Amino acid sequence: MSPGQIAALVAAGAFVLLVIVLAIVAVKAARFFDEATIAMRKAHENTDPLFVEANTTLTHVNTQLERVDGITANARAVTGNVSALTSLFTATLGGPLVKAAALSYGVSKAVKARRKAAEQPNKHSKRSQKRGAK
């Protein structure tokens, strides 16, 4: 055997080994892609019910948000009405009511002061009467 034939034989052996390694890699890659395809199919089958449930949930949430929005609008209207009523009460009855309270307080203080002043001389006069009698 000549050195050229030996080199050809070694090259042929290396080529056979390369083909075997590539065949093993190709078989494993085929298995990987089959498993990936099966996993994607299962994921696709399981996502449909998830999306349906998510849409149903979002529909319910939107309905509740519309109700809350209505309640908020009603609360805003009630707050405005109460504010207007308070302003009206303050404008119509607040001033006169404060004046009437101040007047009644002043009259009450004046009456108490008069009674106190009326009792002061009586106390002194009773004391002086008692002293004069002794």
Radius of gyration: 53 Å
Q: How many DSSP E strands?
A: 0
**End-to-end distance:** 170 Å
Secondary structural class: mainly alpha
Number of helical segments with 4 or more residues: 1
Count of the separate structural domains: 1
- What fraction, in percent, of the residue positions are helical? over 70%
- List the secondary-structure elements in sequence, H or E: H
- Largest beta sheet, briefly? none
Basic shape: rod-shaped
Mean pLDDT: 87
Low-confidence stretches: none
In terms of DSSP E residues, the strand content is under 5%
InterPro entries: UPF0478
Region (Disordered): 114-134
Biased composition (Basic residues): 123-134
Protein name: DUF948 domain-containing protein
Structure description:
- With 134 residues, this protein is an all-alpha fold.
- The protein has one domain.
- The radius of gyration is 53 Å and the shape is rod-shaped.
What is the compact description of this entry?
InterPro entries: UPF0478. This is DUF948 domain-containing protein. This protein has 134 residues and is mainly α.
Characteristics:
mainly alpha; 1 helix; 134 residues
Question: Topology, please?
Answer:
Layout: H1 3-133
